[in-house]
């Protein structure tokens, strides 16, 4: 008879498998530990990490603490104070309830747990390695709990090798803490990385004050508060006005019953609420908190509790969509307040003031770099001729905006010469109508300018590097502390794309110049959009084709967009530039630059 094939896994192996589900990376371990501190009623939570959390994680709180017996039991799998029987699973009101967090983290690290209840004379210290308790003794500690985790994944090399760079892991930790701090504004948070403070957030009186602490006063001034009740569901939070948008959805924060989640349903509701209010491909900054009865929600569908399931998803979608849509219908009061704030901030000398104060508030971070930097209004006229200050810069003067480039032979192509056609006008502030003997053309102004800009950038790259135009005065770009280390590690790539930039303190960049093809005026906004579009692993790419993808992003962010009304001189200059450009029939992403309507087709439509 064949031997037995099925057997029971050893406890240590089972714990490591559970750890792999709960503790994906240092950020997920910190999320679990901080949520335990919140459940313990903490008013202050201090977090410290080393080497992105791989070397050391320490989370200390002033919560209720544990007795010696409970502390020992907490390191065993499926040990929890939140659940008594199966019926409790239908009404979860706490963050941690699985009873796996501490046991899972302990099984893949060297952990020291110190805790004390207010009524106890002394605390207890428990040391464990790979989940095995090695020591238990009394210790002196203030009421609360302090957990020290070292050498995470030291006994699971397969998990260790899948971790990313220290900068990336540190950014993930900071982003996790940022999400937890946004909604729990009545709790003070600090986060230090290798001895450097990333967050120092005192207790806040409101969510708006916490947003001001984390994302900066400029963005907070443009936030609309909303609070709506619909079908036993409360939806409240803060959302930016439709005049403010970002290149990626990184600034969309969604919470359900106080739990930070990444839910496609909520993301879709937010996107549809802003539909027709934001340009395509742009996203708002928003904090959405949904509150509903615990029995209408299943939070037990994901080991890390980052996903939820609603009993009535349609009702939740409608509640979020209408709460936002109704609030966005009237933005006049907040818009006036934001305009006054911007006018004061962009007064003469404001740029110097921003640079001077950037070190004074390292925890204040608009993840939108340039939100504090002077920049021209996107609705103003495009400058066709360099002013005297720019012309006197050390760089060779280049075409700025739509200015004609150096004269040269126009490439031969089968498409019509756009500049030789008669300009009828502009349709829907996005399309240029042209008339010729053979019919009519509609030119997509964004696609056309994007192709022109991309070819200029690629040509400069082949000639030795993208040219940089020095700025009249350096501008400080404040970074999101959650991503500062990752962004600063990508400075070489930014320089290769034509940005004269250098680190400026722990969470800022100093911008001294921008790609000359765009001119220096909008350099801060352009750099902001490029940073927002940076992936989790940065821009670590190789090869010419990979770098051209970055040029596509740069050209797209720097090109005139649909919705911009152009003057006649700007249209003429753009068409002349387009005639001098290769591959002019499509933008770098493959979209058509123009659509033709032959004269015969138009006449047939009118039955002539």
Q: How many discrete domains?
A: 3
Beta percentage is 15-25%
Q: How far is the N terminus from the C terminus?
A: 90 Å
Main sheet attributes: strand count, strand direction, barrel closure: 8 strands, mixed
Poorly predicted spans: 83-90, 335-415
**DSSP helix count?**
20
The number of strands is 22
Reported by name, the CATH topology of the largest domain is: formyl-coa transferase, domain 3
The geometry reads as elongated
CATH class of the largest domain: Alpha Beta
CATH architecture of the largest domain: 2-Layer Sandwich
Pick out its properties.
single chain, Heat Shock Protein 90, Ribosomal Protein S5, domain 2, formyl-coa transferase, domain 3, 3 domains, 8-stranded mixed β-sheet, 5-stranded mixed β-sheet
Structure description:
- The chain is an alpha+beta fold.
- It folds into 3 domains: about 10-205, Histidine kinase-like ATPase, C-terminal domain (Heat Shock Protein 90, 2-Layer Sandwich); about 210-335, Ribosomal Protein S5, domain 2, CATH 3.30.230; about 355-595, 2-Layer Sandwich (formyl-coa transferase, domain 3), CATH 3.30.1540.
- The strands form 5 sheets. It has an 8-stranded mixed β-sheet, with helices on one face.
- The protein starts with 10 loop residues before the first helix and ends with a helix.
């Amino acid at each position: 008879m064949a031997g037995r094939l099925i057997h029971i896994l050893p406890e240590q192996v089972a714990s490591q498998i559970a750890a792999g589900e709960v503790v994906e990376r240092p950020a997920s371990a910190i999320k679990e530990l901080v949520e335990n501190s919140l459940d313990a009623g903490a008013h202050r939570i201090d977090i410290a990490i080393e080497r992105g959390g791989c070397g050391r994680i320490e989370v200390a709180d002033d919560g209720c603490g544990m007795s010696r017996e409970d502390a020992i039991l907490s390191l065993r799998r499926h040990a929890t104070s939140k659940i008594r029987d199966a019926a409790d699973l239908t009404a979860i009101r706490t963050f941690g309830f699985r009873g796996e967090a501490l046991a899972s983290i302990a099984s893949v690290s060297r952990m020291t747990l110190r805790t004390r209840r207010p009524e106890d004379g002394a605390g207890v210290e428990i040391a464990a390695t790979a989940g095995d308790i090695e020591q238990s003794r009394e210790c002196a500690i203030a009421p609360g709990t302090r957990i020290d985790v070292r050498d995470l994944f030291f006994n699971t090399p397969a998990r260790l090798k899948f971790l990313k760079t220290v900068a990336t892991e540190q950014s993930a930790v900071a982003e996790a803490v940022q999400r937890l701090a946004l909604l729990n504004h009545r709790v003070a948070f600090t986060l230090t990385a290798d001895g450097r403070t990333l967050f120092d957030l005192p207790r806040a009186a409101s969510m708006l004050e916490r947003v001001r602490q984390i994302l900066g006063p400029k963005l907070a001034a443009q936030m609309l508060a909303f609070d709506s009740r619909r079908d036993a569901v409360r939806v409240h939070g803060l959302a930016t006005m439709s005049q403010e948008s970002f290149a990626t959805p990184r600034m969309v924060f969604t919470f359900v019953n106080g739990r930070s989640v990444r839910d496609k349903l909520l993301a879709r509701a937010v996107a549809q609420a802003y539909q027709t209010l934001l340009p395509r491909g742009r996203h708002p900054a928003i904090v959405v908190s949904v509150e509903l009865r615990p029995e209408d929600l299943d939070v037990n569908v994901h080991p890390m509790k980052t996903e939820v399931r609603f009993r009535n998803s349609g009702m939740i979608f409608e509640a979020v969509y209408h709460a936002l849509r109704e609030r966005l219908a009237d933005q006049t009061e907040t818009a006036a307040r934001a305009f006054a704030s911007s006018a004061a901030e962009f007064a003469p000398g404001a740029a110097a003031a921003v640079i001077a104060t950037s070190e004074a508030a390292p925890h204040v971070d608009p993840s939108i770099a340039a939100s504090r930097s002077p920049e021209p209004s996107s609705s103003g006229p495009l400058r066709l001729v360099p002013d005297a200050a720019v012309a006197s810069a050390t760089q060779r003067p280049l075409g700025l905006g739509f200015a004609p480039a150096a004269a040269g032979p126009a490439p031969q192509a089968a498409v019509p010469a756009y500049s030789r056609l008669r300009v009828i006008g502009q349709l829907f502030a996005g399309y240029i109508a042209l008339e010729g003997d053979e019919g009519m053309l509609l030119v997509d102004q964004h696609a056309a300018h994007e192709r022109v800009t991309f070819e200029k950038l690629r040509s400069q790259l082949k000639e030795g590097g993208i040219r940089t135009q020095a700025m009249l005065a350096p501008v400080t770009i404040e970074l999101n502390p959650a991503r500062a280390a990752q962004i600063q590690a990508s400075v070489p790539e930014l320089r290769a794309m034509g940005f004269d930039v250098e680190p400026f303190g722990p969470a800022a960049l100093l911008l001294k110049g921008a790609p000359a093809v765009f001119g220096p005026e909008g350099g801060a906004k352009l750099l902001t959009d490029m940073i927002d579009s940076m992936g989790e692993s940065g821009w670590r790419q190789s090869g010419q084709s990979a770098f051209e993808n970055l040029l596509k992003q740069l050209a797209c962010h720097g090109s005139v967009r649909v919705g911009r009304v152009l003057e006649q001189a700007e249209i003429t200059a753009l068409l002349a530039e387009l005639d001098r450009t290769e591959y002019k029939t499509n933008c770098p992403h493959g979209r058509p630059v123009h659509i033709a309507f032959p004269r015969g087709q138009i006449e047939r439509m009118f039955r002539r």
